[in-house]
Specification:
Blueprint (H helix, E strand, L loop, with lengths): L7 E2 L2 E9 L3 E8 L5 E7 L1 H4 L2 H17 L7 E6 L5 E6 L6 H7 L6 H20 L2 E3 L9 E3 L13 E3 L6 E3 L2
Antiparallel strand pairs: 1-2, 2-3, 3-4, 4-6, 5-6, 7-10, 8-9
Length: about 170
């Protein structure tokens, strides 16, 4: 089920589609009661109809929140509507993903950004591993960034960016 601009999902009004993957679609939305922008990942209907897939979806959200690291995007809500639609709500990050930045820059980042990015991502993954959680889908499209004013990757050395990892797609280490 695709949600169109203006549609509602629980307490949220959909603004636009941000992306789609194998398990679900991510939307930008606004909480109607408090006017807060969020990102909502909705599980594809073919998975939402399977109790095991919904359980895994919600377990992954709990695992993400166990990490508690500044470079990991926390999940603020999980829910399943009466029609079976399963979704989770997370912080909406204004900016661009590492994939978009690489594309815009012709596939190469400045050295100082690579060092800062690698440190932040390594720290986030180490925090996940310390909790027994392994991310199964680390890729540039899942690595958004946000600088001090919330606008994405900085253009000058003095702008400080924070890389945030979307840790969805993680699993417990065995």
């Amino acid at each position: 089920m695709a949600f169109l601009r203006g549609a509602t999902l629980g307490q949220y009004r959909i603004r636009r589609t941000l992306g789609e993957g194998g398990m679900g679609t991510v939307y930008e939305a606004v909480h109607m009661g408090i006017d807060r922008h969020v990102a909502i990942k909705v599980l594809h209907p073919k998975f939402a109809s399977r109790p095991d897939a919904v359980k895994r979806f919600f377990n992954e959200a709990r695992a993400v929140n166990r990490i508690e690291h500044p470079s990991v995007v926390p999940i603020s809500e999980v829910n399943q509507l009466e029609d079976g639609t399963a979704y989770l709500v997370m912080e909406f990050l204004r900016g661009e993903s590492l994939a978009a930045r690489l594309k815009r820059l012709g596939g190469r980042l400045p050295d100082y950004e690579v060092v800062r990015f690698t440190r932040q991502l390594s720290s986030a993954l180490a925090a996940a591993h310390a909790k027994g959680i392994v991310h199964r889908d680390v890729k540039p499209a899942h690595l958004p960034s946000r600088n001090e004013n919330g606008t994405g990757w900085g253009k000058r050395r003095e702008n400080r960016e924070d890389v945030r990892a979307s840790m969805f797609g993680c699993q417990f280490a065995r």
